[in-house]
Amino acid sequence: MKKTDINTALIENYFGLIRNLSPEIKLNLIEKITKTLKENLSIKENSIIAAFGAWDSDNSADDIIIELKNSRNVNRKIENL
């Protein structure tokens, strides 16, 4: 069975379930489906931006370098053998 045949069968089964619902419930269902579609689109856009985004900072490169150097914590403790 092809994927399109399975999808068509699923759609027909779901439609059979909701066919006899009241108009208010159908509209509520449409609203919920629309919200999930919008959420999925925003998640997809955010994941693309997160994967390929650039470093975002208001500091200059020199300020970032100074900040990194100052945050280093070197604790060399040489133990006797």
Description:
The protein has helices spanning 3-18, 23-52, 61-71. It has a domain at 22-71. The model has no long low-confidence stretch (mean pLDDT 83). The protein is mainly alpha-helical and 81 residues long. It is 70% helix and 0% strand.
The quaternary organization reads as single chain
Strand content: under 5%
Radius of gyration: 28 Å
What's the number of extended β-strand segments?
0
Number of H/I helices: 3
Unreliable spans = none
Structural class: mainly alpha
Order of H and E elements: HHH
**N- to C-terminal distance:** 72 Å
Mean pLDDT: 83
Gist?
This protein has 81 residues and is mainly alpha-helical. The chain has a domain at 22-71. 70% of the residues lie in helices and 0% in strands.
Key features of this structure:
81 residues, mainly alpha, 3 helices, 70% helix
SSE layout and pairing:
Layout: H1 3-18, H2 23-52, H3 61-71
